[in-house]
Design goal:
This protein is α+β, with helices and mostly antiparallel strands. It has 6 helices and 4 strands, in the order αααβαβββαα. The longest helix has 23 residues, at 12-34.
């Protein structure tokens, strides 16, 4: 059965965070069972990301078998998901990241994970890197490819003013 991975789960770090949260829940329920009745207990905080993944996949986080199944599926995703590195000149908004991830998961692979980086030298656009390919869609590279044409335009503009 396939795991429905929400776009709030962007990277390998996010999956590792979910796995740690699930382990913290397991530890909480184990220690709660060992406590005497009436002893106050404080449950671990659950993130929106974990709530969303559990809800989207119909897992009940209060049930150990559901938590174990979710852990197993998340570990499988972590092991097999393709990872794409994408660098921008400035930090992309969550909306942009969500749109890119939605497209990649719809068109490339349902478990694509992103590593988003910053590379101010690209000026605009992005550089996308997979395990064996680099796609440089930056303004810097585009302008470098057009250098000869740009020099001719500038020379023509300067000589036309004299």
């Amino acid at each position: 059965m396939e795991l429905n991975l929400a776009t709030t789960v962007v990277s390998q770090t996010d999956i590792n965070r979910l796995l740690r949260e699930l382990s913290a829940l397991d530890d909480f329920f184990l220690s709660a069972a060992a406590r005497t009745a009436g002893t106050p207990v404080k449950p671990p905080r659950i993130t929106f990301m974990l709530e969303q993944v559990a809800r989207d996949n119909k897992f009940n986080l209060l049930e150990a078998p559901d938590r174990n199944e979710l852990k197993t599926r998340l570990q499988a995703v972590l092991k097999s998901a393709p990872v794409i590195h994408i660098s921008f000149a400035a930090e992309p908004s969550p909306r942009v990241t969500d749109a890119i991830l939605s497209w990649l998961r719809s068109n490339i692979h349902s478990y694509v994970l992103l590593v988003v980086g910053l590379q101010p030298t690209i000026a605009a656009g992005c550089v996308l890197r997979t395990g064996n390919q680099i796609f440089d869609m930056s303004l810097r590279t585009h302008l470098q490819k057009q250098e000869g044409y740009l020099v001719k335009l500038i020379e023509g503009a300067v000589s036309g003013r004299r």
